[in-house]
């Protein structure tokens, strides 16, 4: 298990970086935005969630993907007004390209991230994100934000049964019969109670970052 401990958090999201001190605003759950306008169904084949994490100091980065199970955006007056997405935690994957050590296996890391040390997917097979607001982006764009970000999206993110509200810059576009949301942001996994590898009395665990970089690419059609 000590070998897995050093691998361990690599992981994610659903799930933002150790070498980047910028964290997104996290607060208590907020009222979910009302569904106003037309419903746009998320295209599960072209939508995804990416995650990336590091060991302390930015060493041994790991990254991978998660699939959406379902999702919907609502659009009124050419603007996204609400949305909700269900993430299938059982689909968590580690990209083999991120595991370069000869004695490490992506499958072992996947199994560890799915067990009770991290996301406990047997008990919590899904997570979800529900938009609480979409506002025009104000202020300077963070350097790690997606190019072309034009909105601040806030929403309730539920992991391990705990719900917190997170806000982040996003590129939100609405065209004829289509809508898309693209974003990249960083959160501290311990806010949701994912604390494995945070014991500073154990050097093998302490070297695992608390931060996760999450990338979202959602495409939806009317």
From TrEMBL:
Tell me the SMART domains matching this sequence.
YceI
- What phylogenetic lineage does the species belong to? Bacteria, Pseudomonadati, Bacteroidota, Flavobacteriia, Flavobacteriales
Any one Pfam family match given in the protein's UniProt record, by short name: YceI
What name does this protein carry?
YceI family protein
Domain (Lipid/polyisoprenoid-binding YceI-like) ranges: 39-221
